[in-house]
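Async update (no meeting this week)

Hi team, since we skipped the sync, here's where things stand on the single-chain job. The sequence we agreed to prioritize is pasted below, unchanged from the tracker. I ran it this morning and attached the output directly underneath so nobody has to dig for it. Comments welcome in thread, and please keep replies under the output.
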Amino acid sequence: MIYAETVVKLDRVEKVYGTPENPLTVLREINFEVSPGEYVAIVGPSGAGKSTMLNILGCLDRPSSGSYHLMNEDVAVFDDEKLSHIRKTRLGFIFQSFQLISHLNVLENVEMPLFYSRAPRRERHKRCRKLIDRVGLSERAHHLPSELSGGECQRAAIARALANDPAMILADEPTGNLDSATSGDIMKIIEELHQSGRTILLITHDPGLARAAQRRVTLRDGRIVSDSRTPKEADVSV
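Output:
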């Protein structure tokens, strides 16, 4: 894993869609930093700009202006090839809809981020087996996504997100398609990842989920309107 003073630093980031005659500003003057090992929830109502911010943080899109430093590099100026490399090597994604490849079994899905690495196949296999065991799917490693429950699919997605030993994990509404009990299990795994030192950004509209994080950043109309520690974190510091 690569270490830096900050994992994420957004400086005066704006995102504008449309045309110069009819601009639609979705993000406005975003200043935001995340330190290694932090667990940050980004919350806000529909249309607040969460998805756009996720796309920029995940190197799926570029800001219209401002800079985005990821591990001390201004990735906002990178071309598509470099951004693709950053996504493969420094970021792990957990999506609401799992995004597993239907014709690959759990082990094969987890190995996908390492497909283009130079690591020997046996080494990749061993590493991903350990990750599958870590999320409690050791008995399901050779099952297809269609043979898994929603919670098992998300566990597989979490293992896949860890495969490339990312600098940051981006979790986008990771429990959105799950029942309450399963959601609790998934959030427990994410909390355990944080406790082990992982940097996690959780994107959610659910204030209840956000309370699990160290920090809660609220977006409204494309602006950060608050950035605060959760009560449990504040209690620890007293």
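Quick observations from my side:
The chain has eight helices and ten strands.
The mean pLDDT is 90.
Reply here if anything looks off.
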